[in-house]
Design goal:
Layout lengths: L1 H5 L8 H4 L4 H7 L4 E4 L7 E11 L28 E6 L3 E8 L6 E12 L1 H7 L13 H8 L15 E4 L9 E4 L16 E4 L10
Antiparallel strand pairs: 1-2, 1-6, 2-5, 2-8, 3-4, 4-5, 7-8
The protein binds a DNA duplex (13 and 13 nucleotides) through strand 3, strand 4, strand 5 and helix 5.
Length: 209
Amino acid sequence: MRNQRAAIVGKKLPAAFFRREDVLQIGRELLGQYLFTRLGGARVTGGRIVETEAYAGATDRASHAFGNRRTRRTAVMYQAGGVAYIYLCYGLHALFNIITGPQDIPHAILIRALEPTHGIDLMLRRRSKTRLDRTLTAGPGALAQALGLRVRYSGASLLGNKIWLEKGIDFHPAEIVSTTRVGIEYAGADAQRPWRFLVRGSAWSSRAK
DNA sequence: CCGTCGATCTCCT
DNA sequence: GGAGATCGACGGG
């Protein structure tokens, strides 16, 4: 009942959504879905996802879990889908990922941008901004900061009432752009895979090169 | 508008 | 010792 009450705009995405094997398909389907947080207080913050990147676990050179590498940082990637993987990038920025697939399959989806819809004033405060524009939540580091997502929440369930997803828009394939992922030039042939997904024409996407 | 650069944690060589 | 799933400040055109 508590979880029902936590829903803001629609039904929560269930464990079965996250535990499917096809990380590329989930990466596409996450576009248009709502991501919400209620962290450090009563206020809900979030919006509709407009940009994702899929990381295909053991076989993907761009993945932290390539070759089934296990470190303290990446241990949560091996849990069953539906938990957060949050790590520190360049020593500064928390990057938020959704772990997908069955247990021991370390698939992850990086959430790169969203269209803010809820708790915009609190997100502005977390980002030390006064005006709402695309820089509030465009780019994975900016998005995580706006939502209050810190490394300490890595491993948190996405099925509870602190961090969760809800049903939003389902886009037609023609409304989705797929292109190469950002910042993984070291990944050889995997750097060329079109595993970054964007809502076509969205004004809220990152402009990373 | 664009390119450059510093910040500074985790993991790898 | 070096690089990285980044961002924002700064200086030049």
